[in-house]
Amino acid sequence: MDQEILDRAVAVTTGEGTLAGRMGIKILSASGSEVVATMPVAGNTQPFGLLHGGASCVLAETIGSLGAALHAGLGRVVVGIEISATHHRGARDGDVTAVATLAHGGRTVATYDIVITDGPRGQRPRSPAGLIGG
Hints:
The chain is of the alpha+beta class. Helix content is about 25%, strand content about 35%. The protein is built from three helices and seven strands; from the N terminus they run H-H-E-E-H-E-E-E-E-E. A hairpin with a 3-residue loop joins strand 1 and strand 2 (about 35-40). Helix 1 runs antiparallel to helix 3. The longest helix is centred in the middle third of the chain and has 20 residues, at about 55-70. It is globular and about 45 Å long. It starts with a helix and ends with a strand.
């Protein structure tokens, strides 16, 4: 994929005014087969000081949808259609890193296995996305 198009897709995904941007999500690398991003725990916690489960789902949805958009290509619209998460442990500080790996890349649905870690701890959201158009 052309670097300019990739840079634009990343900017739209995490730009000013987006939920991902407000949550501090940073895309480290992106392709249709794998997306890697980080998110700070600070500012994304629940009342007990742990990373909010919803914040983890936003991170997963963000990188799963970006991966699906890159898989689908120009002229196609991508929407998340399902997300589920298992939270094995909580994070209290620092950043978490998420890796979305393409599990199924079809013509109308792309599914990503997403692992979010803060070192040895992990959470495992799964995010299928529907592909629309072209």
